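Re: weekly structure request thread

Next one in the queue (404 aa):
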Amino acid sequence: MNVGKSKDTNKGWEVKPSTGAHFDVLDGIRGIAILMVVFFHGFYVNPKSTSIFQVLGGRVIQNLNEGVPIFFVLSGFLISYPFFRKKHADARAWYVPGYWRRRIGKILPPFYLSLSIFTAILYFHYRNPEYLKAAGLWVTGLANFIQTSVPINDCYWSLIVEAQFYVFLPILFFLNRGLNLSKTCLTISIILLAVPLIVRQVTWPVSGGREELLLLTERFPCQLDFFAWGVFFAGIFTMLGNADSSRRPLACVGYTGIVFLIFTFCMLVVWTGLFNSVETPTRWSTESTHFLMGTSSFLLLFFVFDPQCLAARILSASYLRFIGIVSYEWFLFHQPVLFWFRGEFGSANGSIFKYLEVTVLPMALTFGLSVLVYRFFSFPLLNYIRGNKKNRPAPVARTLTGAL
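Done, posted below.
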């Protein structure tokens, strides 16, 4: 079942999900989230520009990285949903067959490909063995606990957070085996919300720089509360049943999510200006951001109840869905290239053409690369792992034409 209409050009690029349901609107939300992250890394504001431009541009750009929590909430829903469906059929069930094969096949091959390419380029360019050591920390996951001496790709930290959730989720369902669906949903959601909050507060450093603080808040289990919102929605969605005419009014909650997300982003921009909360995060700014981003992303999920409502159809636009489908590959490949362009070509010095050269051009190049990686590497591999041998992608040119 494909929940929501989608054009043939995108259907040929979708990997069959384990639940049998593909939520088009979530592809669109994922597309918006990756655009936020790419714009965060790609765009910048001249520090010598006017104060108004600093507010409208600089502070907005500084907070676009909040697209990452949206990814976490989406993962919380999509990864836990098959577990809830299994438990709905059997209260003793706690594991979904093929879970690890699908998770490993989705995450590791593109990640290791990206890591290999960037490590090789950096090592041979700088002749610095520290890049090999850093790569080893990322391969083993130790970079989540040990700060690397040289950067390879700043985006990799979120993959380890995803892996934490993948490992922890089956354990939580195992511990809740025998409980009914509603109790399991409530128990797991509370654990995922409460434990990270407590750990962040207990381990918050008395003093330390921003890098130390960021490493601390990214460690297990400090980011898992974002996934709690998606897990909670997965439980609700399973208990209420699939989207049908009787459930469609619930999609109105999604509009509240849009309003709440805009409000959240505006608040983050204000806090950045008043308290410099991006560069010097505090307990209250960190906890407020977690709560506001988690809640707003949770509310957006309600659009799955009515794929034909106006907002869901807009979010399911072909171009947004296509960006969302290849978002993981774009996430892996964009940041080092964007930073290299800026370092290699220097400041724009007021030239709009130079600015586009060091921002939009590498975005376009890395997006094209991501499409190719997905088309010829990730997608065939995922189909092989999941046994979808008949699922073949549409030609690249035709898909791009239909999507854009």
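The first helix runs from residue 8 to 11. The CA atoms of residues 343 and 372 lie 26 Å apart.
Next request, please.
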